[in-house]
């Protein structure tokens, strides 16, 4: 029975998610953007959106500024919304004027957000890395002009502090030109007050947007240690930074990433395609996966921390009544009647919560055909985006027929066998 339930998520030849992976790799080769300009804009925006700006010569605030923020659950790697996001804004001066939801959505587009794994990638052993994802708050950390700022996915300031990162504190040893900025993709782990760095976007002004994951991880491990940012906190280095162990996605790597000891609380596994560039927004070239052995929250909980009887999803109401996911292009899960919208006081762009009924989700040829959803109410006002399609499907699978570690290990075994056969064939042809 579990295999019958899971069959719609993976078609015999190629799944939708696998197709998106292949298209993303092709697109990044065809459309190389000005990555250096992208990095400069992001670094400038993070700093220009600060509530206060330090005057030149002003000493670093050793007391860390922590602003009250509302961050979605650490287990929710939502993809960016599309309905009201001003796509044409690229200049930092324009972006710094955005407020509220628009500002949050602009900033959220700068992070690379993984899809949820609903299908095991082809060539998992050959083309992918795996790492244990720390539980905590996903954020960008930017060091520039003698200060360091961390911002959450919704654009809110998490910390404003001095650090040992290049240009991260106002010291002689750490001074640099205005172009010597750094951008790190991190998860802040509250228990040990450590920023765990999961990716490097820019280092000393050198953009890594168009570099492969393989190269970015190499630089991350070498450069971060050289900077002294991994040292214990001190007067001019308020928080410790740490790299996350990365493994080749073979049988041993999977088992160690899932069951091995780490100094932080795990919240699932992250998978990165070795050839992927740092793509702002959602990407199928990075994936998140969970089971009970590597996460406390495999199935989403409600506001009380309890697992609801029925799976709940958050969708965005459109002007025509359609209920969309946050994907681009979005997936439509249903439609509300105009009289119900009026009676309930709803309007376009509202984020609404629904429960999946007994009819569940119906798939045809690997695509959603029908969803039995029932209106629950408006979503939390602090929330910025609807659920992504892959998150909804992963959660649905987790309740009915989860993608288990055994499935990943089996795929690794098949991938290894194919690789060995290809090598044997190459040797025979050379002979």
- Which ranges are low-confidence, i.e. pLDDT below 50, for 5 or more consecutive residues? 1-14, 51-88
Oligomer: single chain
Proportion in β-strands = 25-35%
Separation, N- and C-terminal Cα atoms: 48 Å
Helix percent reads 25-40%
User: Could you describe the largest sheet, including whether it forms a barrel?
Assistant: 7 strands, mixed
Radius of gyration: 22 Å
SSE string: HHHHHEHEEEEEEEHEEHEEEEEHEEHH
Number of strands: 17
The overall pLDDT average reads 81
Strand pairing plus helix content: what structural class?
alpha+beta
Shape: globular
Structure in a nutshell:
28% of the residues lie in helices and 26% in strands. With 431 residues, the chain is of the alpha+beta class. The strands form three sheets. Strands 3, 4, 5, 6, 7, 8 and 9 form a seven-stranded mixed beta sheet that branches.
Structure description:
By secondary structure, the protein is α+β, with helices and mostly antiparallel strands. It has helices at residues 2-6, 16-30, 35-48, 92-95, 100-108, 124-127, 213-227, 251-259, 338-343, 389-400, 405-430; strands at residues 112-116, 128-134, 137-144, 147-152, 157-161, 182-189, 194-203, 206-207, 240-243, 246-248, 266-273, 281-289, 312-317, 322-324, 332-335, 351-364, 367-378. The strands form three sheets. Strands 3, 4, 5, 6, 7, 8 and 9 form a seven-stranded mixed sheet that branches. The radius of gyration is 22 Å and the shape is globular. It starts with a helix and ends with a helix.
């Amino acid at each position: 029975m579990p295999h019958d339930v899971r069959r719609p998520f993976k078609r015999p030849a190629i799944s939708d998610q696998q197709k998106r992976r292949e298209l993303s790799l092709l697109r990044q080769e065809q459309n190389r953007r000005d990555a250096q300009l992208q990095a400069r804009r992001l670094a400038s925006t993070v700093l220009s959106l600060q509530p206060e700006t330090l005057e030149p010569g002003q000493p670093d605030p050793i007391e860390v500024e922590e602003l009250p923020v509302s961050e979605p659950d650490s287990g929710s790697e939502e993809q960016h919304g599309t309905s009201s996001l001003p796509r044409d804004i690229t200049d930092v001066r324009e972006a710094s004027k955005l407020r509220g939801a628009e500002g949050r959505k602009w900033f959220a587009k700068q992070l690379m957000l993984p899809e949820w794994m609903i299908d095991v990638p082809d060539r998992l052993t050959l083309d992918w890395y795996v790492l244990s994802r720390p539980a905590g708050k996903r954020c960008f950390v930017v060091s520039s002009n003698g200060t360091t700022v961390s911002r959450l996915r919704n654009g809110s300031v998490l910390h404003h502090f001095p650090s040992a990162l290049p240009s991260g504190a106002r010291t002689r040893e750490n001074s640099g030109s205005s172009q010597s900025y750094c951008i790190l993709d991190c998860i802040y782990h509250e228990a040990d007050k450590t920023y765990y760095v999961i990716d490097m976007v820019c280092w000393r002004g050198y953009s890594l947007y168009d570099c492969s994951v393989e190269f970015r991880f190499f630089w991350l491990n070498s450069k971060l240690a050289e900077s002294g940012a991994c040292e214990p906190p001190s007067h001019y280095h308020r928080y410790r930074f740490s790299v996350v162990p990365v493994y080749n996605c073979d049988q041993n790597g999977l088992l160690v990433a899932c069951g091995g000891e780490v100094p932080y609380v795990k919240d699932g596994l992250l998978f990165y395609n070795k050839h992927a560039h740092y793509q702002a927004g959602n990407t199928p070239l990075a994936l998140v996966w969970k089971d009970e052995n590597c996460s406390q929250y495999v199935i989403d909980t409600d506001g009380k921390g309890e697992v609801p009887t029925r799976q709940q999803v958050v969708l965005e109401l459109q002007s025509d009544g359609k209920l969309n996911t946050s994907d681009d292009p979005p997936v439509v899960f249903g439609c509300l009647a105009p009289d119900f919208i009026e009676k309930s006081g709803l309007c376009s762009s509202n984020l609404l919560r629904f429960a999946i009924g007994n009819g569940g989700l119906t798939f045809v040829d690997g695509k959603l055909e029908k969803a039995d959803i029932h209106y629950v109410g408006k979503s939390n006002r602090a929330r910025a985006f609807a659920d992504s399609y892959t998150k909804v499907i992963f959660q649905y699978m987790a309740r009915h027929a989860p993608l288990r570690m055994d499935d990943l290990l089996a795929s690794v075994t098949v991938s290894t066998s194919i690789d060995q056969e290809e090598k044997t064939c190459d040797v025979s042809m050379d002979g």
